[in-house]
Amino acid sequence: MAPSGKANLALGVDVGTGSVRAGLFDLRGKMLGSADSPIQISFPEADVVEQSSEDIWRATGNAIQKCLRNAAATPERVAGMSFDATCSLVALGKDDAPVTVSPTNRPDHNIIVWMDHRAIEQANRINATRHRVLRYVGGKLSPEQEPPKLLWIKENLPRTWGDARKFLDLADFMVYRACGTDVRSLCTVVCKWTYLGHEGKHGRWDTSFFKQVGLEDLFKNGRVGSLVRPMGSFAGRLNKPAARELGLREGTAIGVGIIDAHAGGIGVLGPSFKKPSAGASVESVLALIGGTSSCHMATTSKPVFVKGVWGPYYGAMIPGMWLLEGGQSATGSLIDHVIEDSAVGGKLVSAAHEAGKTPYDILNDMVGRTKEASDKGPAITKSLHVLPYHHGNRSPYADPYARGMVDGLTLDTSIETLALRYYATIQAIAYGTRHIIEALNAKGLSIKKIHACGGGTKNPLWLQEHADITGCDMALPREPEAMLLGTAILAAVAAGAYPSVPAAMAAMGHSGKTICSNKSTKEYHDAKYQVFRKMYDCQLKRRRMMSQF
After folding, report:
1. Of the four, 161, 263, 286, 362, which is 20 to 30 A from 74 by CA?
2. What is the pTM of this model?
């Protein structure tokens, strides 16, 4: 049923790593208002990262209510709402109360955050089975996906395993909390749980996999749900308690949710669906969603298997199409780390505050002046090389044991030297994107253009280096908050405003600025890219030499 009367707006809610954001859109894709609210995150041990679903839900209410005020809109105008979220694991017990997943046993810590790597050993054991479902995750599960995390809970927190009534991806928890229907997103279960979306009418679980890895009891008493539906499907209506907590109208349509990066893909790829040959057009485009980490989304009409790249996932982003998902586990967080880890990081932050700028503005200015003064362009980093695997390599090596490296350090502690290391790190992240594109194209894809959104796209230096290093023009969406737009597109479909996700993408997604690749820097980047690749080879050799200890 199409929205009628005053209810003609779509609300997208993005649950990120550090905050909840809400954006209100009209049905042509124009954002009328937005707001955010911080959420707590805890690091009780090395590689252990946790959050609270109650804290996130409170922040969601705050963000939505501020968003409505900023948009000068009443709750009655909201026709539909949907959620995107990080691929974090939520545990609920009796009466949907939080159940601890923490080695500290804090009861409110009931979420294992996506970046948590506590389950590396469990991931290794699962991958050693070589079960057929692993073929659809690039050959290996990551400790960032849900089966290793679930196995860690079972082996280390047996009381939690026994008390838990439901385990949900965070996006599915948000939908469940909003409307009371335990409907799992095809996106979350295919991408993070090994659900086979291409088999049967709505896909199926291969229970032989869970039995082989020791998780067969996960399916007792509906702990993972039995209802799986595509993103944007009607999940139910906002119930009375949730309406009161969120400040919305009871009965608002709720759309099946999605992983945050995949929402960004929907938000940036709309222009590809405005043409009659949308399927062919979208297959030559990479959706790059940058934030704390980065995801690289490529769609194909037929399944393509790329070692070290997640997927192929059927229907996990664009209905009826397969998805290949590359990624980098630390990008925005790595750039922040470079600043925070520097002896002059605090001085830089203070200088930026006094100047009314961001630290990145100041560093970009320094890089620009150094390039101009030296007349070397990007070659000012020829003696400084970074391997950006500080939190492991997600693609295409699928190596959680990989670590970061820097070659070319000196004793200089000036802000100018920090600017060079910052610049070299941005280049290294772009070389990682090039590596992923090469892995995809080697298997028959033909990526020629990048549609990008997220935090990195606010940095002109980040954008230009990605264009130059990959050789792909970078297309930005007209709406910079493309992740919120993608989730609002799902809300509009769930409310009946559009008959399908592609139809809504074509109507609500619009092109913005394009950053063209500078071909004159190709020779330099080709050489530095070879150094980038060899750094990992050197690390592998070192790891083999030290493996006996």
Report:
1. 263
2. 0.91
